[in-house]
Design a protein that fits this description.
The complex is a heterodimer. Chain A is 73% helix and 3% strand. Chain A is mostly helical. Chain A has a two-stranded antiparallel ribbon. In chain A, helix 1 packs across helix 9 and helix 1 packs across helix 10. Chain A is globular and about 60 Å long. Chain B folds into 3 domains: 38 residues, no CATH class; 212 residues, no CATH class; 94 residues, no CATH class. In chain B, a hairpin with a 2-residue loop joins strand 1 and strand 2. In chain B, helix 13 runs parallel beside helix 16. The longest helix of chain B is centred in the last third of the chain and has 27 residues. Classes of the chains: A mainly alpha, B mainly alpha.
């Protein structure tokens, strides 16, 4: 029972970080309808840039965080302007293949610059952890959970109650309708990509504390895809709910099935969730059903 | 034969109009090309011959992708996974069950086609983005099933499997030059097969589904059935490619069939031009050459200081990503379109504006 609860709690906390990274996917998908397959690479780039600022250049952590967020926001805007904007009017599949190309490019570029050496970020969180009734919560997981939840909560508030968030939801609803109300659609796209890249960086920062920083972080994308498929690609509540669910399922699979299959059950769990969700509930729990009207 | 004039090619019967090769010049050119390709083992050294064999196998795999992505308009990110099924099936059938290669090849092909069919099932319910994710998931699930229990006893898990050399009577195929002839025969056969698909009923249904699913359904084309046929055919081609790959590389391991390879195959198809067979072939050859150039010249580039000492290994990936992005922005119809424009402007000279 204790083992079960331990896995449950660890999964939920990891799931909060997944939610944060999934948020990046959802924001871009909501505003421009593109699934950004390069999001995993953005997480890895964010973490590596943070490493560069804080360890290679030796700046204090807060300064590095601010600089990294600025860098990633600019990077996101740059990607949108140089590669996604010229593809307006093309079928959505081409844009997705474009993001796949960008993903490959960034993977190789980052590996060429940084190599595949595993690095570590400066220790942000105290080591050790709490122990509640026999369930241990490492401080890294606990603080990541708190920070990720806070950021997701902030984005919820942002989209619901601020003018900028309203603009973004309007663009997600329909570009022409938003434009006719005076919303600058191009600026909203750029903002969406900037926010996405920055939240990817935040996710990379948290993951970099839990695991180590290297280009392999981009593999997180495969573990986050089930979150967006299960939650619905255009639903923020979806990724909030689906994140912990996927995290729990993955950790449970790793805990219970690994001894039978000698490892790797957690990794394939992501793919299994994707396939099952697509068969039974193609639009996810909270996603909008796209009904084709003739 | 058809008459080739500057203003186009003209036929005087339906069968001539539908023919795969339409003019006498093209037939001669094709025969000469096929003849020259058979001379390759005498001209090239062993390393380049291996490159050519691998390129032919990749052409077969990318032709499978052409059927699903180019003709039928679906998205498939799992082609390398299907190749893995083909390669491992052939190797296991030969290794563990002692079946002759010439029976193992069709068996592996059918197994791969069945697996591809299975992973094409989501195409009933989802399109585009979601299908891409389903096939991405299929890639990982296939590799996982191969490397973990219960299959890992037969497949060697992560270490890989050694394939015994195929024999045909007295001939043992354990060198590149002997295997080259088997591969080239299959490649030419499958190129004609793929080219032929587009003029059959099935091929026309594919194109209708690609252009407008709704209109195709209204016309009475059973969409789900034809999408499954597309995946089945791409599975056949991937199975043949994988089964021919196993004796070539002798030791097959999961690393030969990872997601990176799937993305490369898709990229080759897109860069070459996803709409026709020529595009698939050109794209494959172009990207493979690019990869080879990157591998050869990678270690000698020390110019850029920021991009550090690891550049040599990753130059191929960087070039591939750049090429894909640039082609998608500037020439989404691929290299084939550029070559077509060149050919047309040559033919119409001096009126090629």
């Amino acid at each position: 029972m204790n083992f079960f609860l331990q896995l449950l709690v660890s999964g939920a906390m990891l799931g909060a970080v997944y939610s944060l990274i999934a948020l990046g996917f959802v924001i871009i998908a909501k505003s421009s309808g593109v699934i950004n397959f390069a999001q995993g690479q953005l997480v890895a780039i964010g973490a590596l840039i943070l490493w560069t600022f804080s360890i290679a250049l030796g700046l204090p952590l807060w300064v590095s965080l601010v600089l990294s967020i600025a860098f990633c926001a600019l990077l996101g805007m740059g990607i949108e302007h140089l590669t996604i904007r010229p593809m307006t009017g093309q079928p959505i599949v081409s844009v997705i293949i474009m993001t796949l190309g960008i993903a490959t490019l960034f993977d190789s570029l980052m590996a060429a610059i940084f190599g595949t050496v595993e690095r570590s970020l400066p220790a942000t969180f105290p080591t050790g952890g709490l122990s509640i009734r026999g369930i241990s919560l490492a401080y890294e997981y606990l603080f990541s959970f708190i920070i990720a939840s806070a950021m997701v909560g902030f984005f919820l508030y942002f989209f619901q109650y601020t003018r900028l968030g309203l603009n973004m939801r309007a663009v997600a609803d329909g570009h022409d309708k938003a434009r006719s109300c005076g919303v600058k659609v191009g600026a909203v796209f750029r903002l969406a990509w900037a926010i996405s890249a920055s939240s990817a960086m935040a996710g990379g920062f948290l993951l970099g504390n839990i695991e180590s920083v290297s280009i392999n972080l981009s593999g997180i994308a495969l573990r986050v895809f089930p979150v967006i498929v299960l939650g619905g690609i255009d639903s923020i509540w979806g990724c909030i709910v689906a994140g912990p669910i996927v995290g729990i399922l993955e950790i449970m699979a790793a805990g219970y099935v690994d001894p039978i299959t000698q490892g790797g059950a957690g990794d394939v769990m992501a793919s299994v969730i994707i396939v099952l969700t697509l068969i039974f509930k193609p639009f996810g729990i909270f996603g909008q059903k796209h009904i084709e009207r003739i | 034969m058809d008459v080739s004039l500057p203003c186009g090619i003209y036929s005087n019967s339906y069968s001539k109009d539908l023919a795969i090769v339409r003019t006498r010049t093209r037939w001669t050119g094709l025969v000469v090309l096929m003849g020259l390709s058979l001379l390759a083992p005498f001209i090239l050294n062993n390393a380049w011959l291996g490159w050519v064999i691998e390129t032919c196998l990749v052409i077969i795999a990318v032709l499978g992708l052409y059927l699903v992505v180019g003709l039928c308009g679906q998205v498939s990110l799992g082609q390398a996974g299907f190749m893995a099924v083909g390669a491992y099936s052939a190797a296991i059938l030969m290794d563990q069950l002692g079946i002759s290669y010439w029976l193992a090849l069709p068996a592996a092909t059918i197994i791969t086609a069945a697996v591809a069919l299975l992973f094409g099932l989501p195409s009933l319910r989802v399109k585009g983005i979601y299908l891409a994710m389903a096939t991405l998931a299929s890639q990982y699930v296939i590799v996982w099933v191969i490397t973990h229990p219960p299959f890992h006893k037969w497949s060697g898990g992560f270490d890989g499997l050694t394939t015994p050399s195929p024999t045909l009577g007295p001939i043992v195929f354990n060198s590149y030059s002997s295997w080259f002839y088997v591969v080239i025969v299959f490649m030419w056969a499958l190129v004609f097969f793929s080219k032929n698909i587009s003029r059959t009923r099935v091929g026309r249904a594919f194109v209708a589904i690609r252009d407008s699913e709704l209109a195709a359904e209204v016309l009475g084309i059973h969409i789900f059935r034809y999408k499954l046929i597309a995946f089945f055919l791409s599975g056949i081609l991937a199975g043949v490619a994988g089964a021919l790959f196993a004796p070539y590389i002798v030791r097959i391991a999961p690393e030969n069939f990872n997601l990176e390879k799937s993305l490369w195959y898709l990229g080759m198809l897109i860069v070459g031009g996803s709409g026709n067979v020529m595009g698939a072939i050109i794209g494959t050859i172009f990207i493979r050459l690019l990869l080879e150039i990157a591998v050869i010249f990678g270690p000698s580039i020390h110019v850029i200081p920021v991009i550090g000492p690891y550049l040599a290994n990753y130059l191929a990936g960087i070039l591939f990503g750049l090429v894909m992005v640039i082609f998608l922005i500037f020439e989404p119809r691929g290299l084939n379109r550029r070559l077509e424009i060149l050919r047309t402007s040559y033919r119409l000279h001096p009126f090629s504006y």
